[in-house]
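Deviation from plan, reported transparently: iron/sulfur cluster complex.
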Amino acid sequence: MGKVEKIHGVETINGEGFQLTVLDKVIGAARANSMWPLPFATSCCGIEYMATMGSNYDVARFGMERMSFSPRQADLLIVAGTISKKLAPVLKQVYEQMAEPKWVLSVGACACSGGIFDTYSVLQGIDRVIPVDVYVPGCPPRPEQIIEGMMNIHRMVKNESLRRRYSDEYKHLLNKYHLNEDE
Ligand code: SF4
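Because the crystal trials were delayed, the predicted structure below was used instead.
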């Protein structure tokens, strides 16, 4: 019998001349450790995100230092800041331009719920227009909280089944946001 070991968080069974593991887990680990974030930063939370990118916190250790300002080469949308209703269709378009699989991190009270701006012009949470995977509370959240949010995204990515994006549940989620062009 082989020996059970964990390599980069992926459980494997190793023996002489063979190594067994689950494909979902290997792909999940590869995706989680090479995420390309697209920062959609509009206000103060964006500045906090810039601090998270700096040398003190160093997101390069998670393989996330390569910012993508093109949605087509990004797999994590980080929304940090106040989103006005006028900007909401732009955010939705950016999300639609990202290829699957993609994830969304909502940073700060404004992105999560409109924050203190309970006004006619501010979107009361980005989940009114796009699905959100992880919410980071705070006004603004500290870089440690943003990193915790990223780590939660990594956990989701590592454990996501390869079949999830083809499931009825996922199609239903996209339909709710009118994001599924096939239906
Ligand atoms: S949550 Fe607070 S810090 Fe963040 S964008 Fe809104 S007002 Fe600014």
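Residues 1-32 form one domain. We consider this an acceptable substitute for the interim report.
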